[in-house]
Amino acid sequence: MSQHSSDSGLMTTKSQTADEATGLGTFGGVFTPSILTILGVIMYLRFGWVLGHVGLANTLLIVTISTSITFLTGLSISAIATDQVVRAGGAYYMISRSLGIETGGAVGIPLFFAQALSVALYTLGFAESVVRIFPNLNLTLVALIVTVLVTVLALQSAEIAIKAQYFIMAAIALSLVCLVFGHSTEPTAAADSVEVGSVGFWEVLAVFFPAVTGIMSGVNMSGDLKNPSRAIPVGTLAAIGVGYLIYMLIPLTLYFRADPASMIADPLIMRRIALWGDSILLGVWGATLSSAIGSILGAPRVLQALARDGVIPKSMRWLGKGEGPNDEPRLGTLFTLGIALAAVTIGDLNLIAPVLTMFFLTTYMVLNVSAGIEGFLRSPSFRPTFKVPWILSLLGAVGCISIMFLINAVATVVAAAIVLGIYLWLERREIEGTWGDVRQGAWMTLIRTGLFRIKGPLDSKNWRPHLLVFSGAPTKRWHLLDMADALTHKRGLFTVASVLPEGSRDVGRQEKLEATLQDYLEKRGIQAFVRLVTAPDPFQGMKQLIEAYGIGPLLPNTILLGDTENPEGRDRFSDLVAQCHQARRNVAILRSSPEQFTLVQRRPARFRRIDVWWGGLQSNGGLMLILAYLLRTSWAWRNAEICLKLVVPDAAAAESAEKNLEGLTESLRIGAVSQVIVSEGRSFDEILLISSQTADLVLLGLATPDAVDSFTDYYAQLQQRITPLPNTLLVMASEELDFSDVLQKE
User: Fold this and answer.
1) Domain Amino acid permease/ SLC12A, which positions (predicted)?
2) Judging by DSSP bridges, how do beta strands 586-591 and 728-732 pair with one another?
3) Alpha-carbon distance 118 to 356, whole Å?
4) What residues contact 61, with CB distance under 8 A and at least 6 apart?
5) Where does the pLDDT of residue 141 fall: very low under 50, low under 70, confident under 90, or very high at 90 and above?
6) Cα 672 to Cα 641: distance, rounded to the nearest angstrom
7) Is 347 left (phi over 0), alpha (psi -120 to 50) or beta?
8) How far is it, in rounded angstroms, from Cα 120 to Cα 179?
9) Which helix (H) or strand (E) holds 168?
């Protein structure tokens, strides 16, 4: 059952007009949480280690490479944010409205858990640093208390939590000032045992890169911003720029004040250099707390958007509720607290920490892909005020993938498997959003490119049946659709066509009926197009479709018909077959009842046999063998035996014919067996009835209209001949293609 969601579910109680908008501004809502997450623990505890191992020049290069990837992602975010109204959900909202709800959910669900578990990571880091100063304290207890306090702060309101971050920012700024105005330090005794340069460039970059992540902290506050379209690009890019300047300044400061061995040996080397050493501790504590606050603010808002879009199970939709004038997700915050407390109780997140980093980088990558595709397609609906060349977004996506593998290849594969699993789960649920996304535009571009690259009809190497099936009401002639599905088995194309009486439907009702039939086919597992036309009579409508249906070189090459049951309509039916031949369309006429064909479909595989009455590889013979082979390789007719049957007048002719047929079947490699039948004075009709009475499907060649005096009389006689037979498929090869080339390779 499909589930529906709409943007209206994400509307907050705030006014959307600029004059009445309330909420956070650019500095408090985006810049502050972003810069505080960027200036984190790695800056304080790992910058010396990075500089000690690779030197000043390579450190500055690592900072530049890492920040460049984040900057490219920031550009992509800015493009998306200035093209659409960004509501609650941040990155998830952007991705789902661009690449579809399945992709958005596949990234959004892991992103929520990554942010929820990040709360535990940061509070555990804070508790560990406190316990080092006060060893009598219990690490887990301190982490639990801090986690609850941070959550209480977030529950009061996002605005109060942001104001608390101003004090944390002041502590970090103080520590940086004390570092810049600090002094040189003497080598430590522990430095003697350190091997400088033992870690390579890319390994060091992998350790440092998480220091430049964190720009999602501001994006996740999108639902609490006064003007997200302005605040997100300005605040995000400003945070990236300020972070880059600080990260370029710190290595220069450390380089001239400490030796490489001491920087590697002492993670708190900055404390020894700073003018006031304890300011570095304040900075470390501020960095962990600010990151925890950013995560506890962002995670519930992503969860709120997921719940309102129907991505998470129905039993958890209550997590989409918001409270207060700012629509704050308090229930979602308490749910996030539960996850964080459970993680803190475990106490050791080292095993999953790399996977969490992968989820953040996956989000960056998908945002870059989203902006890149939108920019490449140049859809009229994509009109960002902040324009970014699509090649830069693509470069950002490649950079994200590269860094993911450099950091941890195993964690990258695990994260990718989780995201793919969630995507497939959401796709099976068939969640429908009322918004459009970029996927149809991407497919249209690919189809256009493909159509213009097809030069004329397909060659023999790439031939497949492209069927136009005249089924009438599909429910009454479902055996035709079963046959078409078996011949194409979700690799070829086929269209279910029907002719409506003229004037019986207006255009709107006709389109609605087409959509209903399409849905009916999909629910029965049939992948097909649907085309309805109106005409004074069915045969005229069918002729119109044969002449006009298709686009460019992609035209149906085979017409599949049911046998006519009305003798009075045999003339019109014969004219239709003649038109198919003149239009170079192959013809396949299935004579069967729905009950008879369905019974064959359900038989055990060991009873199945397809009889092909042979008249040579040229013309109809080659096409009949191809169709028999396609049936045999389908799921419904798997492992059926293809029996190639040939009638000869006497035993002398039989010996030569047997040798030729055996050589042919061996060279064709389609799993066919040959059977040569000596007529011994019997008529072909008698031999046909006796030999194929136990077959499940009989394939017979159909003469072309120009090869007989009266095709109507010929077809009437043929109908009498095949009436006693089981399911029969009459085949006429009309296409300008040597079907023997499809079967045989030089």
Assistant:
1) 30-468
2) antiparallel
3) 8
4) none
5) very high
6) 7
7) left
8) 29
9) helix 158-180
Q: Say if strands 529-535 and 558-562 run parallel, antiparallel, or are unpaired.
A: unpaired
Token duo for residue 678 = 């000596």
Tell me how far the alpha carbon of residue 616 is from its chain's centroid: 47
Q: What is the pLDDT of residue 745?
A: 52
The tokens for 404 are: 């993911």
What is the rounded distance in angstroms from the CA atom of residue 130 to the CA atom of residue 376? 50
Mapped onto helix, strand or coil, the DSSP state of residue 559 is: strand
Confidence (pLDDT) at 207:
83
Distances (CA, A) of 600 to 373, 471, 607: 47, 19, 9
Q: Model confidence over 299-338: pLDDT tens digits?
A: 898 899 899 888 888 888 888 888 877 778 889 999 999 9
Helix runs in 386-477, H state only: 390-407, 409-429, 439-453
In this structure, CATH architecture of domain 30-174+192-246+267-439: Up-down Bundle (1.20)
Domains 30-174+192-246+267-439 and 460-743 share a fold: no
Q: What pLDDT sits at residue 596?
A: 57
User: What are phi and psi for residue 271, nearest 5 degrees?
Assistant: -65, -35
- Please give the structure tokens belonging to residue 172: 């970090």
What is the tens place of the pLDDT at every residue in 13-68? 333 333 344 577 888 888 988 898 888 878 888 899 999 999 999 999 999 999 99
Place of tokens 């942010």: 115
- Map residue 350 onto helix, strand or coil: coil
Q: How far apart are CA 272 and CA 184, in angstroms?
A: 8
Domain ranges of the chain: 30-174+192-246+267-439, 460-743
pLDDT in tens, 569-611: 899 999 999 999 999 999 999 997 655 555 455 454 455 899 9
Q: Where residue 406 falls among pLDDT bands split at 50, 70, 90?
A: confident
Q: Which fold has domain 460-743?
A: Rossmann fold (3.40.50)
More confident residue, 7 or 653: 653
The whole-model pTM stands at 0.68
d(CA 696, CA 628): 12
CA 354 vs. chain centroid, Å, equals 24
Q: Which of 695, 80, 670 is nearest to 363 (CA)?
A: 80
Bridge partners of residue 589, in order along the sequence: 561, 730
The whole-number pLDDT of residue 442 equals 65
Buried/exposed 455-470: b ≥16 CB within 10 Å, e otherwise: eeebeeeebbbbbbbb
624 exposure class (CB count in 10 Å sphere: 0-12, 13-18, 19+) = buried
Q: Which has the closest alpha carbon to 129: 272, 291, 283, 346?
A: 283
Per-residue pLDDT for 367 more than 50?
yes
